[in-house]
Amino acid sequence: MLQEDEIKRIYTALADETSRNIFRHRLLYSLYGDRKEITKIVYEYSPAQELLSNSKICYYGAGVGSGWLVRYNTNVTFVIDKYKTGEIEGWPVISLDDFLKLPDCKEYVIIITVGKENVLKEITAELAKHDLRYVLAYSDLQYSQLQYFDLPELKLQNEFFVDAGALDGNTTRYLLDHFKKNHAYVFEPNPQQFSITEKNLKTYPNTELFPYGLYDRDTALCFDVRSYDASSARISENGSIQIEVRRLDNLLRDKKVTFIKMDIEGSELAALRGGEKIIREQRPKLAVSVYHKPEDIWEIPRLLLDCHPDYQLYLRHYSISYTETVLYAV
Q1: Least confident residue range of 9-13, 110-114, 270-274
Q2: Which terminus has fewer CB within 10 Å in the chain: N or C?
Q3: Rounded to 5°, angle at Cα 198 from 213 and 238
Q4: How many C-beta neighbours within 10 Å does residue 187 have?
């Protein structure tokens, strides 16, 4: 149960006004489900806020991202998609060719909701060829997995870095490219993605790769691999495969840890509990996703403050939907 004094404690630990504003909006969204609170975050902190407020809007990509967004953006009239037709949330889905036939097509701002970087490049090249305006639904930092280093207060130097939810290893690769003396412990439980991570990091000697998920106990759990979007694969009772999960405290018992990044699709709180001894004893910096479950916005900062009451907390938001809110602890 969330208590008023817990809210005050978290709010007091937030280090700047941006963080406090995002916390207020996300807390209200989590408690009451009011999507307008997410819209407020987007309009306050998105670089595209002026375009979103003053232009005709449509979406490119009739997937999960568009489905969520069109529910609360009332000025949307249709969605563009290369392969799908019909409707999404009651809005018509049209092809790009049909869109180009509209006499006012160049008055629109096209919001691209596609999450795969290679597909994104194809789409942006096509839109640029027709001189169409567009913005990305997610920060370009998110596409390159670099949003976890976005906060200057992290003061990255020679880190012993935990990459929980490596996906393809690009986050670790960026860190090691820019800070040569870093060391990384890399975790990816999806067998297919682990192979990709292994390949991408094979020339980096300062890495230790683990084919495990992080959790609050050592066990095997069902896992939904989500072949249509590897970045959203997660632990699920309905998962088609089993993965091994481990406590960070057990795996890295005698290892140095200075920075922990976690984006593991709703298992962040359990994983942090599994690494609580390391957090208490070594006080690492953290960058943790706090949008997968409604309670993450208070449960995760509460746990970190229980470990170290003097952590300074920051919140940053990297999309134009409810996703990609990151909590930093310094």
Answers
A1: 110-114
A2: N
A3: 35
A4: 25
Residue pLDDT, tens place only, 235-280: 777 777 888 999 999 999 999 999 999 999 889 999 999 999 999 9
C-alpha–C-alpha distance, residues 181 and 159, integer Å: 8
Q: Is 301 exposed, middle or buried (0-12, 13-18, 19+ CB in 10 A)?
A: buried
* Fold of the CATH domain 4-26+142-329: Rossmann fold (3.40.50)
Of 3.30.360.10, 3.30.930.10, 2.60.40.10, 3.40.50.20, the CATH number of 46-137 is: 3.40.50.20
Q: Whole-angstrom Cα distance, residue 134 to residue 123? A: 10
3-class SS of residue 213: strand
> What's the CA gap between 194 and 200, in Å, rounded?
10
DSSP bridge partners of 60: 80, 112
List where CATH 3.40.50.150 sits in the chain: 4-26+142-329
Q: Where in the chain is the domain with CATH 3.40.50.20?
A: 46-137
pTM of the model: 0.84
Instruction: State pLDDT tens for residues 131-189.
Output: 999 888 776 665 556 788 888 899 988 899 999 999 899 999 989 988 778 899 999 99
